[in-house]
Amino acid sequence: DINYPEQEILSAFANPKALCYKPDPKGLLSARTAIVKYYKLKGIFINIDNIFLSASTSEAYTLLFKLLMEPGDSVLVPVPSYPLFEHLAQVEGVKSISYPLYFDGGWHIDFYVLKNVCKKNTRAIIIVNPNNPTGSFLKQSELTELIQFCKNNQLALISDEVFCDYPHYDDTERVNSIAQINEILTFSLNGLSKAAGLPQLKLGWIVINGQGELYHEAHNRLEFITDLFLSVSSPVQHALPTLLDLAPIIQEQILKRVLSNYSWLKKQIKAESVCRLLPVEAGWYAILQVPKIITEEELLLELLIKDNVIVHPGYFFDLQTEGYLVVSLITRSDIFQTGINYLLSRIDRLTQ
Ligand SMILES: Cc1ncc(COP(=O)(O)O)c(C=O)c1O
Q1: Which domains, and CATH codes, for the chain?
Q2: What's the gap in Å between 55 CA and the centre of ligand 1?
Q3: What count of other Cβ atoms lies within 10 Å of the Cβ of residue 310?
Q4: Which residues contact 267 (CB under 8 A, 6 or more apart)?
Q5: Order of all β-strands in the sheet with 324-328
Q6: Among the atoms of ligand 1, which is closest to the Cα of residue 58?
């Protein structure tokens, strides 16, 4: 299984400083210094004052909805993508408006529809880069168009970059992070959940960027909101420098497994197969297109009840039509292969 450096992780929490409560609304300086270093290793230079810690990326979204929107305002969210946006928005009294990503061998933002669904009371657009579950990166040309779109409509750009440490291969056309973009108001989100494979530690962060009065106002208000909650625990903040130093050891193992599961899966889907494996640029998931003999729900229930195999239906992620299953590539390889063999035989039986 993934070999977590357990002793080092546990020792990071044995810091006596954690017994003292000296909160900072942005997060402790030592924790934010570690985040500056995390970006520097990627060649991205962040101002330490632009970092705000949060108790997970999910919480970061709610902080940003509070910051940018009044009840009744709207936010643009990609589909297919992470299924929590609608609900995260709803609990803040905000409406989520979907904009589509389309697939033509790769995934792209449908700018035509995006421009048409944007309303007067829309305040921000979310991108997930790389996206879950499509595993697709935003491209440089798309970023240029997005920045112009945000300028035209006075929108903030929120970029969820939790899977950025898991590219499957290199491509210079990709946008790895928007953390340095300041032509418009931007927020890039990340956290320990994926960067160190430690979701239970509940630590995420926001990097804010922008220019002029709007940026200063947003910065001050975000500090006011985080000061209200002071939600990130001191022990995890004190542990962060060590945890981020250990992160590459964990990332390396996860990425190795994800790549090997994906390449094994690719070999199983022969040219004559009734299933199709969609290409993946990054992340922990793969999408399988399957024949629409029964509904996704019926198929996954058959797999669960008859074969003990768990997969997600495409509709969880708002894939536009039926006939898609999302499989997790982080499953231990022997279990993954058994599960896929069951899945493919079940589909074979259904199509005969
Ligand atoms: C795209 C994306 N963003 C955010 C999260 C949640 O991260 P956190 O555990 O930091 O709330 C997930 C979890 O799977 C995710 O897929």
Answers
A1: 6-247 (3.40.640.10), 248-351 (3.90.1150.10)
A2: 12
A3: 12
A4: none
A5: 276-277, 285-289, 324-328, 312-313
A6: 11
Give yes or no for a contact between 184 and 149, defined as CB atoms under 8 angstroms apart. no
If 0-12 CB within 10 Å is exposed, 13-18 middle and 19+ buried, where does residue 321 land? Answer: exposed
The model's pLDDT over 140-161, given as tens digits with 9 standing for 90+, comes to: 999 999 999 999 999 999 999 9
- Please work out whether the CB of residue 176 comes within 6 Å of at least one atom of ligand 1: no
Q: Which residue has the tokens 């898609």?
A: 324
Contact in structure between 164 and 177 (CB atoms under 8 Å):
yes
Best CA proximity match to 69, nearest among 189, 163, 185, 205:
185
3-state helix, strand, coil in the chain (%, to 5): 45, 20, 35
Tell me the sheet residues that pair with 126. Answer: 158
Q: CA 239, CA 315: separation in Å to the nearest integer?
A: 38
Which residue type occupies 77?
A: V
Dist CA 178 CA 192 (whole Å): 18
Over 90: is that where the pLDDT of 320 sits? no
Rounded CA separation 329/283 (Å): 9
Q: Which of 52, 56, 57 has most ligand 1 atoms within 8 Å of its beta carbon, as the pocket-test mutant?
A: 57
How high is the pLDDT of residue 352? Answer: 85
**Which residue out of 52, 53, 193, 316 has the highest number of ligand 1 atoms within 8 Å of its CB and is therefore the one to mutate?**
193
With CA atoms as reference, report the closest residue to 165 among 239, 82, 250.
250
Tokens for 125, please give them: 């657009």
Q: Is the CB of 190 under 6 A from ligand 1?
A: no
Report the separation in Å between the CA atom of 282 and the middle of ligand 1, taken as the mean of its atom positions.
Answer: 15
C-alpha–C-alpha distance, residues 148 and 142, integer Å: 10
Residue 77 CA, ligand 1 centroid: distance in Å: 15
Q: Is the pLDDT of residue 205 over 90?
A: yes
Of the pLDDT bands very low, low, confident and very high (cuts 50, 70, 90), residue 1 is confident
Task: Report helix, strand or coil for 79.
Answer: strand
